Automatic annotation (TrEMBL):
Pathway: Carbohydrate biosynthesis; dTDP-L-rhamnose biosynthesis. The keyword Nucleus does not apply. Its cofactor is Mg(2+). Residues 3-297 form the RmlD-like substrate binding domain. This is dTDP-4-dehydrorhamnose reductase. GO terms for molecular function: dTDP-4-dehydrorhamnose reductase activity. Catalyzes the reduction of dTDP-6-deoxy-L-lyxo-4-hexulose to yield dTDP-L-rhamnose. The keyword ATP-binding does not apply. Its EC number is 1.1.1.133. GO terms for cellular component: cytosol. It comes from Sulfuricaulis limicola. CDD domains: dTDP_HR_like_SDR_e (cd05254). Keywords: NADP, Oxidoreductase. It catalyses: dTDP-beta-L-rhamnose + NADP(+) = dTDP-4-dehydro-beta-L-rhamnose + NADPH + H(+).
Length: 310
């Protein structure tokens, strides 16, 4: 079987990828204990031992606000490590799939961003992710960079689980309503990745020129968009009555009403037509994905005789 090295196995996307990639090859999944992305020697050691045909890099420094005070660590993980992984992939005649973000853009356009729009990140996190994209391209390995936005899941830390927790603790939630984007379920991202790998695997592993023709940046997001306030409202709409003693009031506020260390782009919409057309993928709406995720959240956290345990 062809060998896949998956990084970030304990993250939102990595957890899902372990399952969706399992039927496509021998998946060697590593987390921070096995591979320290801030340590180039650790990266090279693991890749050299595994000798994968494909690297799927789902690991990242994702603490957007904390990155403002830890720029060196964020750059090491998000900016330098992807380039090292890509260099090692090139040496092995392997390929790499990497995940990036809507935060490489400044959010000033009045339409969804396309892959060829000029990046202009407004925070440290976005700058480090852009550096990672450029490092991968410079390494010369066959690569696919999948930019996505507003990732959530039934596990780890994310906006959805934060809303579930706050809905039990507060009578009123003040949620930003002037930032827009597409909430993306981690499982959808993992399933899309696996469909791409299934289409390309033979060329990824044995004929690098074929994947080289497809190498580049793709936007991987569901259909549609909303604001954080709209996202929160949809989450609450999808909860059973037992999940809350009383539904909290949602109050829309501007970004200025919720100051954070890192600036956020107002427009995080990504145009996903390139990915859909290239791989003939039919993407669901963000609302449909959220409904499926909430079903899973209920199975994990909700007990009929008690409250949500998030």
């Amino acid at each position: 079987m062809r060998k896949i090295l998956l990084t970030g196995k304990n993250g939102q996307v990595g957890w899902e990828l372990q399952r969706t990639l399992a039927s496509l090859g021998d998946v060697v999944a590593v987390g921070r204990r096995e591979m320290d992305l801030a340590d180039p020697d650790s990266i090279r050691k693991v890749v050299g031992e595994v000798r994968p045909d494909l690297i799927v890099n789902a690991a990242a420094y994702t603490a957007v606000d904390k990155a403002e005070s830890e720029p060196e660590l964020a750059m090491a993980v998000n900016g330098v490590a992807p380039g090292i992984l890509a260099e090692e992939a090139r040496h092995l005649k392997a390929a790499i799939i990497h995940y990036s973000t809507d935060y490489v853009f400044d959010g000033t356009l009045n339409r969804p961003y396309r892959e060829d729009d000029a990046p202009n990140p407004v925070n440290v996190y976005g700058r480090t992710k852009l550096a990672g994209e450029r490092a991968i391209r410079a390494a010369g390995a066959p690569h696919l960079i999948l930019r996505t936005s507003w990732v959530y899941a039934a596990r780890e830390r994310n906006f959805l689980l934060t809303i579930l927790r706050l809905a039990r603790e507060k009578n009123e939630l003040r949620i930003v309503d002037d930032q827009i984007g597409a909430p993306t379920w981690a499982r959808l991202l993992a399933e899309v990745t696996s469909q791409i790998v299934a289409q390309h695997f033979s060329s990824l592993c044995r004929q690098a020129t074929s994947i080289s023709d497809a190498s580049g940046v793709y936007h991987a997001v569901p259909e549609g968009w909303t604001s954080w306030h709209g996202f929160a409202a949809r989450i609450l709409d999808g909860l059973p009555d037992q999940a809350m003693t009383a539904r909290p009031k949602l109050v829309p506020i501007p970004t200025s009403g919720y100051p954070t260390p890192a600036k956020r782009p107002a427009n995080s919409r990504l145009d996903g037509d390139k990915l859909r057309k290239t791989y003939d993928l039919a993407m669901p709406t963000w609302e449909n994905s959220l409904a499926l995720c909430l079903e899973e959240v209920g199975q994990i956290y909700f007990q009929h005789d008690s409250a949500w345990h998030v």
